[in-house]
Design brief:
The chain has one helix spanning 77-85; strands spanning 2-7, 10-16, 22-24, 27-29, 31-35, 40-45, 48-57, 60-65, 68-76, 95-97, 102-107, 114-115, 120-126, 129-134, 139-143, 151-152, 157-162. The protein has one helix and 17 strands. The strands form three sheets. The chain has a nine-stranded antiparallel β-sheet with strand order 4-3-2-1-9-8-7-6-5. The relative contact order is 0.15. It folds into two domains: 2-85, 2-Layer Sandwich (Glycoprotein, Type 4 Pilin), CATH 3.30.700; 95-162, Beta Barrel (OB fold (Dihydrolipoamide Acetyltransferase, E2P)), CATH 2.40.50. The protein starts with a strand and ends with a strand. By secondary structure, it is mainly beta.
Length: 166
């Protein structure tokens, strides 16, 4: 079965073969994938061990790997066909939501600042780890409804980014 996997707007074609082996963008990889908790997974890829947290969100998946947050989407062949018929996969939202409950340690921007996609804009501490949350798209910061030192729930709006001002 083939899947289109999108991680931070970078696309990967993942094919899971009948024997359990995996091809990523046509290249074979040895991958062992095991769930070790409700949202925690262990992956051994090409003899390298990784631990990650994967949680559903309203737009796809939040993936936490090595203290960094990634946004992800997975489309099977049928879903990809349907998305293409609707005009393609939707562009990243301009809203940054908290992927988990935590404490706002730092906010690196203020309303009116111009940001680029992937730029660290908030640092959220959760489970004694600091997580760099990145701008989901380029544009101008419209609002920041939270403050440094504030605790937030999973899904809380942290920063809203509008189109870049000319």
């Amino acid at each position: 079965m083939k899947y289109l996997t999108i991680i931070n707007n970078q696309q990967f074609e993942v094919e899971i073969l009948g024997d359990g082996s995996v091809k990523i963008n046509g290249q074979p990889h040895e991958i062992d994938f095991l769930q070790i908790g409700p949202s925690r997974y262990s992956i051994i890829k090409d003899f390298k061990s990784l631990e990650l947290v994967i949680e559903d969100n309203q737009d796809g998946y939040d993936i936490l790997l090595n203290g960094r947050r990634y946004g992800g989407h997975v489309l099977d062949e049928r879903a990809l066909l349907m998305a293409n018929r609707r005009g393609g996969f939707k562009a990243a939202s301009g809203e940054l939501h908290s992927p988990m409950p935590g404490l706002i340690v730092q906010i690196s921007v203020k309303a009116g600042d111009t940001v680029t996609e992937g730029q660290t804009i908030v640092i959220l501490e959760s489970m004694k780890m600091q997580n760099e949350l990145k701008a989901p798209r380029s544009g101008t910061v419209e609002s920041i409804p939270v403050a440094q030192g504030q605790t937030v729930d999973k899904g809380a709006l942290l920063v809203s980014i509008g189109d870049a001002k000319s």
